[in-house]
Amino acid sequence: MRLPESMRVSTPLFALVVAIMAPVGAPQAPAEFDLLITNGRIVNGTGNPWFLADVGIRGDTIVQIGDLADRQATRTIDAEGLVVAPGFIDMHTHVDDAFDSDDANAILNYLMQGVTTVRTGSDGSGSFRIAETKARWEVSGIGTNAVMMVPFNVIRREVMGRDNLRAASPEEVRRMRSIVRQGMSEGAWGISTGLEYDGLNIYASTEEVIEVTEPVAEFGGVYISHMRDEAGSILEAADEIIRISETARVPVQITHLKAAGRDNWGEMRRVVEMVNEARARGVQITADQYPFLQGAPIDFITDLIDVPDDLAALSDLRRRMGRAEFAGDVSESDRVATRREFVAELQSALVDDAIRARLRASTYEPRRADPSAVARWGWQDFRIKVTDEHPELLERTLDELVEEQGRDGFDIVADLILDEPDMLFASASQSTDDMLYAMSQDWVMISSDGGGFAPVADGARPVRAHPRSFASQSVALRRYVREDGLLTLADAVRKMTSLPAQFLGMKDRGLLFEGFQADVVIFDPDTISDRASYADAHQYASGVEVVLVNGVISIQNGSHTGALAGKVLLKTEPATSARYGFDNAFESQER
Asked: 76 phi and psi, to 5 degrees?
């Protein structure tokens, strides 16, 4: 598939500079390379400054880097003035459903930013059937490489069924360990957890998580977690993930690192201190982070109303709408239709006094497991990001409106839903100082927490949403490298290439080295930019001109070639105690 004409970012001038050419003229010696990239500024992923060199590729492998001006190649890319770097690795995505869709499986929103490998199975979601999923995805083809995890939340439900809001029994833990071991034997890279979700923050103890995670160590795998809390108990949650690493003997990663909620601003410095102290004593702990202040929840203003299960029709519509959000096989028109149906039902409910009272009670209910966003954080942590009818409310927080109007926050939101249900709000979750301080740490990677989507058609209706699915890598390179100078170009590339590869234990990706796989991105450091916004989130990045996935040109002159060259990458090497710094051999027998 190719991008619509209006989405292509190449120019005639660039097409003259970076063209893919076959040698012409007199007969020449047989080509030594299938592809030769010449005159590029090599940013190789190590964190070292760029250097000028050529890159020779044969098949799916980088075979030589250096002065290759007199060497023969079947095709040549002249990258003068451009950066040549390893393909980016995004360590936190939710593209699993997109890979199952014939429309979205190229995940162009990632390819257009130079991403060549994504981690799936985030936050304890996804499939634990690694071999089956790999076969299914690769039959249809996928646009990028994929790294799979064993999802803790899913296997817990698989074993415990609907009765999972309790501690797991020893037999259930044994069965979960067996599923983890099977997933790892099929090539998973580790286990992922979403301990803040599904009631696990209450019912899944640290000891249970450690026991279920322990088999991962036998395979040299990793533990990646949406921690138990990113707000008031963030220090306890950080301490827990460090304890999991030391007890289960696995490297660990904090996913989308943040200190959420205004009351917790400033705690990031203590979290960083804790991580640095742990790293100093040998704990392999890292983190990933999306480069935006706003995180979840972010949605239409209707999402701030909690719908209880006993309002069955409305609750079912909300679940259908949520499933469709990241599902690659659901068309945009179907998403819009489902939402319109939900909005109509919600507006009718809000003008019925009895149902409105039930919605109010559910929104404020201080449930131990899975409370609403409002019950958890209060109105202060939500900000109006997009509005057509009320420009005076733009960038205002809801607690400010409560104070100004002297009204209950629920009533303010209910009235806004009746007036403008497509108003977009976002969390005011973290402070600028906290976010930038975390980003500056050398163990923090750049990720997206985004989904995969079908190609955006010419003249498509603007989509109000978080721009991170289309803009995380590009905003990091545009804002935090080129404009603000928080990171050097070499630092940013390292955070998106060798740092995630090193954490996972990949030995053939993440660096632009001879013998490594030919996942390569060529971009203009002076023009790379994000075009997505909260008001129009599905806009492709610009400035990435060529992307190779396993040696195959997938983006050429800023346009998709139609290639689906990605692979599901498998973890195959067992651990060694020396690698992880532990003295004792790993336990290999099931308890």
From this structure: -135, 140
